[in-house]
Amino acid sequence: MRAAVLQAWNEPFQVREVHLDQPHQGEVLVKVVASGVCHSDLSIQRGLLPMMPPIIIGHEGAGIVEEVGPGVSSVKKGDHVVLTWLYSCGYCRDCGRGRPHLCEKAAMATMSGAMYDGTTRFQLDGQPLRHWCGSFAEYTVVPEQAVIPIRKDVPLTSACLVGCGVMTGVGAAMNTARVEPGDTVAVVGCGGVGLNVIQGAQVCGAERIIAVDLVEKKLELAKQFGATDTVNPSQGDWTDQVRALTAGKGADFVFEVVGNPNLIQQAFAAVRRGGKLVIVGVPPMGQQVTFPAMNFPLEEKGVIGSYYGSPRFRYDMPRILDLYMAKRIKLDELVSRQLKLDEINLAMSLIEQGEVARSVIVHG
Ligand SMILES: NC(=O)c1ccc[n+]([C@@H]2O[C@H](COP(=O)([O-])OP(=O)(O)OC[C@H]3O[C@@H](n4cnc5c(N)ncnc54)[C@H](O)[C@@H]3O)[C@@H](O)[C@H]2O)c1
Ligand SMILES: [Zn+2]
Ligand SMILES: [Zn+2]
C-alpha cells in the first residue's frame, strides 16, 4: 500500500510503497478514506515542531475499520471512525480529571511517532518507519483509544476534518474558553482552524465575532461561518481596529490561530478587562513572548493555551457531527479542494499560500 513519506525536513513528500503490520494487542487497522491537510503538517515538514523524519504524518483522518487486534472491544470491522492524533491512557491523573488530551503517557507515545511499546508498525525498504496518526497513508494502525466510532450518515470526506481542525477550533471556543451568550470574540487567523473557532463561538451564542486575516477571501469565508465583523491588519493596527469595534474595550476572548509570536504578543492589547487571550496557533519551537505583567492582577486579563480544543474525544467528536447533521456546524464548506495522495505536495503549497480553508486528500 502507498503512503506519503516525509524523508527529511524541508524536502517534498514522496509517495512510496510501504509495508504495514497487522494490528497488535489493543490496536486497530483502519482503511483511511480521507485526510485533511493542516498547517501543523506544513510546520512538521519545515522542522518547526518536535517530530522527526523519516515519518508518515497526516493527522486529520477518517476511515473504515478493516481489522481489530486482540482485546479491542469498542470498534469492529466496518465501523466508520475518526482518527485522533492524540490519545489517552484512561488511568492517569489527567485522564481521571476529565482532561484526556493532557494524558502524559499518551503524549510521549504520540510525539515519538511510535506505538505505546516503542515499536513501529510501518516499514520502508525493510527499515522501521515511524508514523504520527498516519492519515497520509492508505491504511494505518493506531491504538484503540485513537479510533472514535461515528455515525455513518456523515460523508467521511467531511468527517475527517473533525480529526483536527474542527475539534481544535470548535473546542477552543466551547471547551477551553467556554464562550458565553453575549460575549464578544476576535479570531486572528481564519484558516481551517480559525473558521472553526468562529463557528464554535457562534454555537456558544457569541454576540459579536470579529474575524482578523490578511487575506480578503478568508474574511469573506469567515462571514459565512458566523463572523459579524472583519478586520484586515494590512489596513492599520489590527488591535486598534478590534478596540474600535468594541467601544474601545476589546473582546472578551481573542483567539490567536496563526502560530505567530508577534501576533500573540499584539493580541493581548485587544483583550478586554477580565478577558482572555487564547493561544491556539502553534509557534515554532523555542519562541518567546512577553506581556505587561500589571494587567494580569489589575485587569484580571489572562492568557491560556488550547490543545486540540480540550476535547473529551468520545463525547465531543460525535456531538460535533450531530451538530453538523442539525445544520449548526459547517463541514462541507471547509473543503476547498479534494486532491489525490499523489498531489500531496500541491496540498502543502496551497496551505502555505493561504489559498484554502482545507484541502482534503481522498485515498483511491
Ligand atoms: N492548538 C492545537 O492543538 C492546534 C491544532 C491544529 C492546528 N494548530 C495550529 O493552528 C494554526 C492554524 O492552523 P490552520 O490549519 O488553520 O492554518 P491555515 O494556514 O489554514 O490558516 C492560517 C490563517 O492565518 C492567516 N494569517 C497568516 N498570517 C497572518 C497575520 N499576520 N495576520 C492575520 N492572519 C494571518 C492566513 O491567511 C490563514 O488564513 C497553526 O499554527 C497550526 O499549527 C494548533
Ligand atoms: Zn492539525
Ligand atoms: Zn492518561
Structure description:
The structure is a single chain. By secondary structure, this protein is an alpha/beta fold. The protein has two domains: 2-164 and 310-362, Medium-chain alcohol dehydrogenases, catalytic domain (Quinone Oxidoreductase, Chain A, domain 1, Alpha-Beta Complex); 166-305, NAD(P)-binding Rossmann-like Domain (Rossmann fold). It is built from twelve helices and 19 strands. Strands 4, 6, 7, 10, 11, 18 and 19 form a seven-stranded mixed sheet that branches. Helix 7 links the parallel strand 13 (208-212) and strand 14 (229-231). Helix 5 (165-177) crosses helix 6. It is globular and about 60 Å long. Bound molecules: nicotinamide-adenine-dinucleotide and zinc ion (2 copies). Residues 88-89, 91-92, 94-95, 103, 105-106 line the site of one zinc ion.
Task: Give the topology.
Blueprint: E1 2-5, E2 14-17, E3 19-20, E4 27-36, H1 39-45, E5 55-56, E6 61-68, E7 80-83, H2 93-96, H3 104-112, E8 122-124, E9 127-131, E10 139-143, E11 147-149, H4 156-159, H5 165-177, E12 184-188, H6 194-204, E13 208-212, H7 216-224, E14 229-231, H8 238-245, E15 251-256, H9 261-267, E16 271-279, H10 295-299, E17 302-305, H11 313-325, E18 335-339, H12 344-352, E19 358-362
Parallel strand pairs: 5-9, 12-13, 12-15, 13-14, 15-16, 16-17, 18-19
Antiparallel strand pairs: 1-2, 3-8, 4-6, 4-10, 4-19, 6-7, 7-11, 8-9
Helix pairs in contact: 5-6
Bound molecules: nicotinamide-adenine-dinucleotide and zinc ion (ZN) (2 copies).
